[in-house]
Amino acid sequence: MSRLTARGLTLAYEDRVVVEGLDLDVPDGKVTVIVGPNACGKSTTLRALGRLLKPKGGAVLLDGESLAKLPTKRIAQSIGLLPQTPVAPEAITVADLVSRGRQPHQAWWKQWSEDDERAVVDAMARTDVSALADRSVDELSGGQRQRVWIAMALAQDTDLLLLDEPTTYLDIAHQVEVLDLVRRLNRARGRTVVVVLHDLNQAARYADHLVAMKSGVVVAEGDPREVVTAELVREVFGLDSIVIPDPVTGSPLVVPSAPWGAAPAGEADEARGAGGDADPQPARA
What we know:
The chain is of the alpha/beta class. It contains ten helices and twelve strands. A hairpin with a 2-residue loop joins strand 1 (4-13) and strand 2 (16-26). The protein is globular and about 60 Å long.
């Protein structure tokens, strides 16, 4: 049985239902990625999995027990959550913010320990923010700030890690770095990870288990090689595409079809060769 599950989950903001009747089993020891169009309920679902949002119906279960009935500290020792737009206390330093990830492991009789120190140093090294330790979080760029938040979630050292759009504000190199880090944490330490991503190709590359949502329901889930098809992309995202193997990983790679009115590459080449309406080429010396 999966440690983290949802049964008949209905989520709403006041009277507006966002997710309805959702069942989900998060595979243990795997990277699960949730994808879907804007406002489909993927981030809302992640918030409920981390008990940031109380269900209107159904329940989220951790080890078979409803999150609603578990002590907050026990949840924090089992589930680490990085929300989409976290807010840091004013003027806090990077080292202090990352250190706050250790709070669930402390008590009045057990203050800062060598284990806490090691966890913080390791988390900062893995996210490449060690050199920023004494800087104020307010001074950092968006990409630096995001890596610091990820470091705090890693310092919490939980078996379950929930990340909502962890690549936001990051350039492509740091996006790959963060997702590679997530993969290494999963492979080396057996952590169960749930990630919400907008980029379907990144999701297909890094996911062991992919969940596609639309209008608050799960449309398909499973191995990306089986789930990501042109038909699914059209149904979920309303986009015509072809799906080919990624030349590096073999995972599905979604290539959007030519936009309306654009000539396919072969026809454009023929037009240029025949002196058609293609853009003129500059003369060569």
